[in-house]
Amino acid sequence: MVTRPNEAVPHEFNPWLHVTSLIEQAGRLLKLDEGLVKRIVTPERILEVAIPVRMDSGKVEMFHGWRIQHDTSRGPGKGGIRFHPSVNVDEIAALSADMSIKCAVVNIPYGGAKGGIKVDPSSLSRHELERLTRRYAFSIAPMIGPDRDIPAPDINTDTQVMSWIMDTVSMLRGHNTPGVVTGKPLAIGGTLGHAGATSLGVTICTSALLQRLNRPTIEQRVVIQGYGKVGAPLVRLLSERGMKVVGIADIRGAIHVPGGIDHEVMSQHYSEHGTVVGYPGSIDVPSDQIFTLPSDIAIPAALGGFIDAKVAQSMSATIVVEAANGPTTGDGAAVLASRNIPVVPDVLANAGGVVASYFEWAQDMQGYMWEPELFQQRLEKTMHEAFNHIWTRHQQLEATLRDTAIAVGVERIAEATELRGLFP
Ligand code: GLU
User: Residue 136 belongs to what H/E stretch?
Assistant: First the structure.
């Protein structure tokens, strides 16, 4: 069951309770009917699946997974699937609600969903990973589909995992079903531009915020937590716009390079060593100190819940752009607000990925692939429009960018819910 407030463990960050309180706060700001807010908060469907997997040793291991559709009033559920040892129902529920809001903020015709398996994928062989993925896909197959719920990659899942899910569902249905997942390889209905789209959206939001604050982009010092699917392309994109990435953390450690990191040298170093640590001329720093490094912009691009009150208090940057999902706790957000540090929230900053997914799905549904320029043009336009809308509304509402983005998302979900009415 998704935790309700009275079951909460005091002082422990629970992402589900956090997102619930943000939606309820948006409901109050928008003066929405209480019953309507209850409908918006509560996930529509929660599926928990047991996943038996025959390991290479011949032994059978049990894993647990979830797929949650939070809200489908604006369209089919949409959201990634993560494989991580920390996955639990509260985390997936919170992330599914984030997806409902995110899709509404960028105004694409989707609801929100999320899935995950509690597993450390690095402990599995490729064959074990394939069997795990296929059995999970089989178990959630009744719930997903191009017009029901469309998974995508998230933490520790990639184009290969999407291919296995797409193939499993296609085998079950008896026909090719490319629109059931996004983030696929090009050869089976993926699209150019999907990889790196989240990072491009983060870059667009960073530049747009600097512009609104009348600050130059050139020489702005950036620290990034995470050098994965989102963090790595970010180093290149930000550097191309003249910003200077001076610190990066990954799971093995963190580094400080006051003169700035060269993205090509870093990419080469990472492919040889599997970590940012040891980058030529870098100074090692403790990973949990990454945001204390002298900098102008902080970009969390790893797991959620890291920026708590203490991290927010010691943050050196004067701007935060959330590339990760849910990187800031409620207390952390309050401290950042009290320090007047603007935060571009996850539901806006990292929405480039799901916008790219929408374009991939639209192409699959049309059976007509677009020119790469069209994809790029539309992605940039969607992100700029979303940022500008949230910026204007935050000035009108005199609220933070996060509270405004959530209010705009909730407002759009509320409109769809009311228009559709209550069945039966
Ligand atoms: N996992 C990404 C996110 O959290 C993408 C989701 C999608 O494309 O459906 O936004």
Answer: helix 126-140
Atom in ligand 1 nearest the alpha carbon of residue 153: 1
256 within ligand 1 shell (Cβ under 6 A): no
The pTM is what?
0.96
With the C-alpha atoms ordered 173, 179, 184, 189, is the resulting torsion angle positive or negative?
A: positive
For 58-112, how does the pLDDT look when each residue is reduced to its tens digit (9 = 90+)?
999 999 999 999 999 999 999 999 999 999 999 999 999 999 999 999 999 999 9
The Cβ of residue 214 has, within 10 Å, a number of other Cβ atoms equal to 6
Q: Which of 74, 78, 82, 99 most suits a substitution to test ligand 1, by most atoms within 8 Å of the C-beta?
A: 99
Task: Please give the distance, rounded to the nearest whole angstrom, from the Cα atom of residue 109 to the centre of ligand 1.
Answer: 14
Kindly list the structural domains of the chain, giving each domain's residue range(s) and its CATH number in brackets, ordered by start.
15-176 (3.40.50.10860), 197-349 (3.40.50.720)
C-alpha 89 to ligand 1 mean position (Å): 18
226 burial via Cβ count (<10 Å: 0-12, 13-18, 19+):
buried
Atom number, ligand 1, closest to the C-alpha of residue 182: 8
pLDDT score, position 6: 42
The pLDDT of 326-354, averaged and rounded, is: 97
Tell me the HSE value of 360 on the side-chain side, using a 13 A CA sphere.
32
> What is the position in ligand 1's atom list of the atom closest to the CA of 356?
8
How many A from CA of 301 to the centre of ligand 1? 13
